[in-house]
Write a structure and sequence with these properties.
The complex is a heterodimer of chains A (682) and B (90). Chain A has 682 residues and is an alpha/beta fold. Chain A folds into two domains: 388 residues, Thiolase/Chalcone synthase (Peroxisomal Thiolase, Chain A, domain 1), CATH 3.40.47; 268 residues, Thiolase/Chalcone synthase (Peroxisomal Thiolase, Chain A, domain 1, 3-Layer(aba) Sandwich). Chain A contains 25 helices and 18 strands. In chain A, a hairpin with a 4-residue loop joins strand 11 and strand 12. The relative contact order of chain A is 0.14. Chain B is mainly α and 90 residues long. Chain B has a single domain, classed as ACP-like (Non-ribosomal Peptide Synthetase Peptidyl Carrier Protein, Chain A), CATH 1.10.1200.10. Helices cover 59% and strands 0% of the residues of chain B. Chain B contains four helices and no strands. The longest helix of chain B is centred in the N-terminal third of the chain and has 18 residues. The radius of gyration of chain B is 12 Å and the shape is globular.
Chain lengths: 682, 90
């Protein structure tokens, strides 16, 4: 077997894990190979009368230290220290611009404190601590600061596939030569919000989860973190370190089907798996083990079990280790990646006990440990919004040094190669209206508001009332509708063939996410109690809801990922788009940024600026989208008509103030300035 | 069964469904008592099904623990109304 997916192979040199199954890798494997588990009958970390079981990390595991109440960060740091020790990395090895950090999280990315919100909605004075935690909570930035890493950093908020998306992103960074080492994975703490949200969606079991079992009653929430140290061959050689495994390939695709339900024929999952196999030059029978998403909901397991059978046939051995850890949300894909790599080094993978065979699932998971026979290990993840990810790991022995590999790695950072991607088109919506022509008129007029009636920077509702939004208005909230408007315009202006649209990679980035839905969910939680909050608001409160609405409306089935950052989300998304295109992960990228503002957010902002004694902020909203594509050779170096991104970014800097006048204060002013520059040129 | 009470209940359910499920373009008259609520008819989906579970809990104190069993109850507006009616009586 050979694995030659990439010309610049990516290795796993260390790993760490913390979950209810154990405080480190050894403890987790011991639990998983014993077939025993330790769920709690009810959460102890918060009060709830729902009485459904959870998997909590052992309270004796010391997490606190310097991170106080930041549980997600503490979990991530715990897994990271183990991974660093495992990789024989000194602190100094992770400092500097050649080290990246890609981490997934869901809970820590949302302002979801019930007490804080309860005070805000009644115009009371809240304890500022939850807000402070949220504003300081960008997990990739925090972890990067802890270890001194100053390479690419990204926090992925793509619901249940976030951890796998983070590993996929780091893979692109390394493949494209953007960094030498990347810390990749995910972390999530057990929290009241998903506990009540999943319960309301009727997919949380009243007994501990039984993946793929005929008697399965739904998922059981867990918490934890999984971290991989990913590294290039050159970096490993330089520090004389031995890799544990090869990350042979990553596949990613969108169902473009339903916000919460998987495609009935597992379209996205199958596509992601086939893509990973193809790019690693592997055949299905070379896969020794699949760590399935296996949440133990009725739909997931029936559809995934069927898909695995369709893809691999009856010889496949697979399990769901959520049986031991519960569903750890953004940590899940990362924890399960660690299990795959550990299996390759240990020579066996954990099974997951099964009592009752489900006749609707053609292939049963293995109850007993599964032997490694020298082949690949695959981890699958599926998220709300239809993002599916497949991570394919290979043992190091399988890695034959092919001529491609002995080539020197990209020595130049891609940022220094301006001709990698160009902008094919742009779509924009803001308080001034929709489209580049409206933007140009507003710049000429020097006034943001189309109707001149309000000094607030809101996008008028009638811009989002058109027939194109009709089908989704019922579910999609404002951030999704604005993102869809700009994305539709960019896709249309790029004049792409149907196939090219279908294969687009979608990146959505925002700072505050879908907070209207988060607040709606908190309202329903406060009004109706833990047992009956709104399931639709919960589903829409994930940061990747706009990503889903874009993929579904436009019929995009390529990879999709959702990022969040307070510090230049656009620049971070652009970095990923560049590495994705440079490494051959996508031909074209639909990059969308946006944020929404509502009265609650304005109130919270005023509370914060008053508390901090800083000037109040006039927040604006809107969205801007770009279709980015691989630069053609002849376009490099051209002057006036250049669409190279760094050139345009430089030129657009002079529009920074104009963008504030037109859009209000946003954290994606750089993207809006770029839209201004493009509109003037159009 | 007092048909008047059932009729009132159906009216109330239609109004609640339209409001809670944000069915902007649907009027109470569009919901045929005997047409399927899911798939065809007014075209509800799995996320609407769980909204219905929550709707029954909030407005009638009725808990549906098993969504598979719920499928029969949610088949048509008529079956839903009759179920709520029975539950209220007992």
């Amino acid at each position: 077997m050979t694995a030659q997916s990439s010309s610049f192979p990516v290795f796993v040199s260390g790993m760490g894990i913390v979950s209810a199954a154990g405080a480190d890798l050894t403890a987790n494997l011991k639990t998983m190979f014993s077939g025993e588990r330790t769920p709690s009958q009810a959460p102890t970390l918060f009060d709830s009368d729902l009485g459904k079981p959870v998997f909590e990390c052992d309270p004796n595991v010391k997490l606190d230290g310097v991170f106080g109440s930041e549980r997600t960060l503490a979990l991530a740091m715990k897994a990271l220290s183990e991974a660093m020790a495992d990789a024989n990395l000194a602190e100094s090895d992770l400092a500097g611009p050649r080290v990246g950090v890609a981490l997934g999280s869901t809970v820590a990315c949302m302002l979801n404190s019930v007490d804080f919100y309860a005070a805000i909605r009644t115009n009371g004075v809240p304890d500022p601590a939850p807000l402070e935690r949220y504003l300081n909570g960008d997990i990739s930035e925090r972890v990067a600061a802890e270890i001194g890493a100053s390479g690419p950093r990204s926090t992925i908020a793509n619901a249940c596939s976030s951890g796998s998306n983070a590993i996929t992103m780091a893979f692109s960074w390394l493949e494209s030569g953007l960094c030498d080492i990347a810390v990749a994975g995910g972390a999530d703490e057990l929290s009241l919000i998903p506990y009540c949200g999943f319960n309301s969606l009727q997919i949380m079991g009243d007994v501990p989860c039984a993946p793929f079992d005929a008697e399965r009653r739904g998922l059981t929430l867990g918490e934890g973190a999984g971290i991989l140290i990913l590294e290039t061959e050159r970096s490993l050689k330089r520090r004389g370190a031995e890799p544990k495994a090869l990350l042979a390939a990553c596949g990613s695709a969108s169902d473009a089907y339903h916000l919460t339900g998987p495609h009935p024929d597992a379209r996205g999952l199958k596509k992601a798996v086939l893509q990973a196999l193809e790019s690693a030059d592997a055949t299905p029978n070379q896969v020794d083990y699949v760590n399935a998403h296996g949440t133990a909901t009725l739909d997931n397991d029936r559809i995934e079990g069927k898909a695995l059978f369709d893809l691999f046939g009856e010889a496949l051995r697979y399990s769901s280790t959520k049986y031991y850890t519960g569903h750890t949300l953004a940590a899940a894909g990362a924890i399960e990646a660690v299990v795959c790599v550990a299996g390759l080094t240990e020579g066996r993978f954990p099974g997951s006990p099964l009592k009752n065979v489900d006749p609707e699932i053609p292939l049963q998971p293995s109850s007993e440990p599964i032997a490694h026979n020298g082949g690949f290990a695959l981890s699958t993840s599926m998220a709300f919004g239809g993002t599916c990810v497949a991570l394919l790991f290979a043992p190091c022995e399988s890695f034959h040094r092919s001529p491609a590999v002995s080539r020197p790695a990209h020595s130049a950072k891609i940022a220094a190669e301006p001709e990698i991607i160009t902008i094919a088109s742009c779509g924009v919506i803001g308080p001034f209206g929709r489209g580049l022509e409206s933007l140009k008129a507003a710049i000429r007029r020097g006034n943001a508001n189309i109707n001149n009636t309000s000094d607030e920077f809101s996008v008028p509702d009638d811009l989002l009332n058109g027939s194109e939004f009709k089908k989704m208005r019922r579910r999609a909230d404002k951030i999704s509708l604005m993102a869809l408007a700009s994305a539709t315009d960019a896709a249309t202006a790029a004049n792409l063939a149907e196939r090219d649209i279908r294969e687009l990679a979608v990146i959505f980035a925002s700072s505050f996410g879908a907070h209207n839905s988060t607040f709606k969910f908190l309202d329903s939680l406060l009004d109706y109690g833990h047992s009956a909050p709104s399931p639709t608001s919960f589903s829409n409160s994930v940061h990747n809801a706009p990503t889903f609405h874009i993929s579904q409306a436009l019929g995009i089935q390529g990879s999709s990922v959702t990022m969040t950052a307070f510090d230049s989300p656009f620049a971070k998304a652009l970095t990923y788009a560049e590495s994705l295109v440079a490494s051959g992960g996508a031909e074209r990228v639909l990059l969308v940024v946006g944020d929404e503002v509502n009265d609650t957010m304005r109130r919270i902002s005023d509370f914060w600026t008053e508390f901090r004694k800083t000037p109040s902020i006039s927040w604006g909203e809107g969205s801007v989208a770009f279709v980015l594509e691989k630069a053609r050779e002849e376009s490099a170096g051209s002057s006036d008509g250049s669409t190279s991104v760094p050139d345009l970014m430089k030129k657009s800097a002079r529009f920074a103030e104009t963008a504030v006048e037109l859009f209000g204060h946003t954290l994606f002013n750089d993207a809006l300035s770029l839209a201004c520059a493009l509109s003037i040129r159009s | 069964m007092p048909e008047d009470e059932l009729l009132e209940l159906k009216k109330k359910l239609k109004k609640l469904i339209i409001e809670e499920l944000s069915l902007e373009d649907v009027s109470p008259d569009d919901i045929d008592d005997d047409a399927p609520l899911f798939g065809d008819g007014i075209g509800l989906d799995s996320l609407d099904a769980v909204e219905l579970v929550v709707l029954l809990q909030r407005n009638f104190g009725i808990q549906i623990k098993d969504l598979e069993a719920g499928k029969k109850i949610f088949e048509t507006l008529d079956s839903l109304a009759r179920y709520v009616f029975e539950q209220k009586k007992s």
